[in-house]
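Q: Here's a chain of 127 amino acids. Please give me its 3D structure as tokens.
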Amino acid sequence: NSKVDSKKSCLVAQPLMNNGGAYGPRGGAQVNIGSCGHSWAEWIFDPSTGEIYSTVFDKFGGEVCLTTGWPFLQVGAFDTSATGEKAKAAVILNEAGESANYVFKNNGKTLLTGSIPPHSIQTISFD
């Protein structure tokens, strides 16, 4: 029920930011509505698993599944300077049933590498 051109109304895989994050391409791809005439708009449905996936990232390490958001690993960063604190804070949430490795950077400098256990939250304070 849209007035959008039908040739520009396909689910299109978006480029993987940060090389796909902690999971790489297997972590999933975000999508948008776009042109149907490009390989980014080609999806495969596997009726045996019920999964929808794309092979557009094969040259970057593998197929990706269609996801409703960044899968399982979320990070929020906070500037606490308004409270008089010099430190900043980051909160990492791992919704997955398996551990996830991460690299924490600030201004291109690696501050911390770590792993977060399944179904857990970590809070990091840094200057």
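Q: Can you summarize the key feature?
A: The CA atoms of residues 87 and 125 lie 6 Å apart.
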